[in-house]
């Protein structure tokens, strides 16, 4: 798995271009990186580690080059397993993103035929399958037709001033600029191309300096989707911040408004009608997207809709059996590529469900598989710990619930206007308070000596505690547990001895205030170090309405996790062993 970036040009281009593209794809993997290009012969260089920190050592130019940054999902992070991977004659170099399911059988067959493998990756079967081909286009089509899995790959061949690019479900696109740029995502093409061809599932492109020709598996020429590359350079770069995570937290205020204004009335109304008319509703997602889904339970309840919120990983085991015609799945995925989500919606579709997708990635598999999708529009998020996409997803889900409320009669246009006003106000307040919250987060976290902590709240802010705990695990490699205030008293409080830190988010529901006060008192009596998150807390969140309070409260938690990661000197944006989109 990983990220692919390369170019095909009429005139030789600096090879360092590939380093720039790979750095922008670093969120896809950072176990190792490699590059291949054509001189008189096929050249290859590889290195272990994070290419955004240590660029590949390349000098000179070439008309054709391909690079890869790797997440070691199949095979250890060794130089041998780092892409590009070559055929036996070292004439074909392949980079691949995704997973091949039946690679063991294929490899066994190829070994029996005499092929010599040098790595333990699934991807290495591709160069050997291409070996000896007389027609690389046909051979690539043959691979995507026969080899099972979800993957995309690109390859170059000694003596050919072109590249071949194939997609068997995993996204890959070709930017159309002064050169043709091959990449795993759209944002990385910023500054290189204004438009990009998105390769459809099960297609192969022949990329020459003159153009891109795309074929389906029957070798028919396709006219694929062309998307605009509309990101600003500062969005794909760190913009002066030391880490993407911090930058992306600072992006939150502008993203909140942007996410709301980018939602189109006609799609919202349609999605709301679908949700309102559903026989049953399941909201699915993983990690941060699941936590946003859990908050939507409160949003939908308020408008008289019962939404079942289930991890996309668990959905097939028990919820799927309740799905039939009339069911609606609200599928949330920032990347739009997470396997659990894609697998679940495919199964649900087969049983007749309608899919409402919520994703930050317009060309993603979720967007393509959904009957209707609502964009998160938070811009590219490059740190593995998700921040601004969580808050923007909440904006989308709250808006959808309000539109659903228009159908159920529980909300009217005035509620929508009030939400819009509250959101604008919240965005302004977060914008002005961020430096202060950052400082308070740093001070608060400097007192955390232990490697484990609780984060607690109640009601609509309980999923925020779960989300905060996830951020501590990813950014600070600290164990944190999100727990409901009431549940704390049923055993877990036993651990809150002196020195065991606890972050308490003040609930937004008045009914929970008594419990909140009781827990705070009991913890103070025990001498537990308490960090309180509220408009009056030790780390102050911005005052806002109940429905927007999860956004206000998560920001201090994100910053505390970030600061602890910094204090521990951790690679916050690229935590070891984690990858932005979990594709398995
Ligand atoms: C969030 O910080 C994590 N990196 C992770 O839990 C993530 O939210 C999860 O893998 C789901 O990703 P998705 O939204 O792209 O589907």
TrEMBL record:
EC number annotated for this UniProt entry: 2.6.1.16
Superkingdom assignment: Archaea
Matches recorded under SUPFAM superfamilies: N-terminal nucleophile aminohydrolases (Ntn hydrolases) (SSF56235), SIS domain (SSF53697)
Example of a GO MF term: glutamine-fructose-6-phosphate transaminase (isomerizing) activity
Residue span(s) of domain Glutamine amidotransferase type-2: 2-210
Listed GO biological process terms: fructose 6-phosphate metabolic process; protein N-linked glycosylation; UDP-N-acetylglucosamine metabolic process
PROSITE patterns xrefs: GATASE_TYPE_2 (PS51278), SIS (PS51464)
Reaction(s) this enzyme catalyzes, per UniProt: D-fructose 6-phosphate + L-glutamine = D-glucosamine 6-phosphate + L-glutamate
Entry-linked PANTHER family: GLUCOSAMINE--FRUCTOSE-6-PHOSPHATE AMINOTRANSFERASE, ISOMERIZING, GLUTAMINE--FRUCTOSE-6-PHOSPHATE TRANSAMINASE (ISOMERIZING)
Protein name: glutamine--fructose-6-phosphate transaminase (isomerizing)
């Amino acid at each position: 798995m990983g990220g692919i970036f390369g170019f095909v040009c009429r005139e030789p281009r600096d090879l360092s271009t590939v380093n720039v593209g790979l750095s922008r794809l670093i969120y896809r993997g950072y176990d190792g990186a490699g590059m291949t290009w054509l001189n008189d012969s096929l050249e290859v260089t590889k290195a272990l580690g994070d290419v955004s920190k240590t660029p590949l050592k390349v000098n000179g130019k070439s008309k054709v080059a391909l690079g890869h940054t790797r997440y070691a999902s199949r095979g250890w992070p060794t130089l041998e397993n780092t892409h590009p991977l070559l055929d036996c004659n070292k004439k074909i170099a392949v980079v691949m993103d995704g997973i091949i399911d039946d690679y063991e059988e294929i490899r066994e067959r190829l070994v029996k035929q005499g092929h010599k493998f040098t790595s333990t990756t699934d991807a290495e079967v591709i160069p050997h399958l291409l070996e000896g081909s007389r027609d690389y286009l046909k051979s690539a089509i043959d691979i995507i037709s026969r080899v099972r899995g979800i993957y995309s790959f690109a390859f170059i061949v000694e003596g050919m001033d072109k590249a071949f690019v194939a997609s068997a479900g995993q996204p890959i696109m070709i930017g159309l600029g002064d050169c043709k740029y091959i990449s795993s995502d759209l944002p990385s093409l910023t500054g290189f191309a204004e438009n990009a061809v998105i390769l459809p599932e099960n297609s192969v492109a022949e990329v020459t300096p003159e153009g891109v020709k795309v074929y389906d598996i029957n070798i028919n020429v396709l006219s694929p989707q062309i998307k605009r590359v509309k990101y600003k350079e500062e969005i794909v770069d760190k913009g002066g911040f030391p880490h993407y995570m911090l930058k992306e937290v600072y992006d939150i205020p502008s993203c909140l408004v942007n996410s709301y204004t980018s939602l189109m009335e006609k799609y919202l109304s349609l999605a709301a009608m679908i949700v309102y008319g559903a026989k049953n509703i399941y909201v699915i997602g993983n990690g941060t997207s699941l936590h946003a889904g859990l908050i939507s339970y409160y949003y939908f309840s308020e408008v008289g809709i019962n939404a079942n919120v289930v991890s996309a990983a668990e959905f097939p085991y028990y919820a799927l059996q309740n799905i039939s015609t009339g069911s609606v799945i609200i599928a949330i995925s920032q990347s739009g590529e997470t396997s659990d989500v894609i697998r679940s919606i495919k199964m649900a579709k087969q049983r007749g469900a309608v899919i409402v997708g919520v994703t930050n990635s317009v060309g993603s598999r979720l967007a393509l598989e959904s009957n209707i999708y609502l964009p998160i529009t938070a811009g590219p998020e490059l740190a593995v710990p998700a921040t601004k996409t969580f808050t923007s997803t909440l904006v989308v889900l709250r808006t959808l619930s309000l539109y659903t409320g228009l159908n159920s009669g529980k909300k009217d246009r005035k509620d929508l206007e009030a939400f819009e006003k509250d959101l604008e106000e919240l965005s302004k307040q977060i914008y002005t308070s961020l430096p202060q919250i950052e400082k308070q987060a740093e001070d608060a976290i400097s007192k955390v000596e232990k490697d484990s902590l609780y984060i607690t709240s109640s009601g609509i802010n309980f999923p925020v505690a779960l989300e905060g705990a996830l951020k501590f695990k990813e950014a600070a490699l600290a164990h944190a547990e999100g727990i409901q205030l009431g549940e704390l008293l049923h055993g877990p409080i036993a651990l809150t001895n002196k020195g065991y830190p606890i972050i308490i988010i003040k609930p937004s529901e008045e009914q929970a205030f008594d419990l909140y006060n009781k827990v705070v008192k009991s913890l103070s009596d025990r001498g537990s170090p308490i960090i309180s998150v509220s408009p009056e807390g030790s780390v102050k969140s911005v005052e806002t309405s109940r429905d927007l309070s999860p956004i206000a409260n998560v920001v201090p938690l994100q910053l505390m996790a970030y600061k602890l990661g910094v204090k521990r000197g951790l690679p916050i944006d690229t935590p070891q062993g984690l990858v932005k989109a979990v594709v398995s």
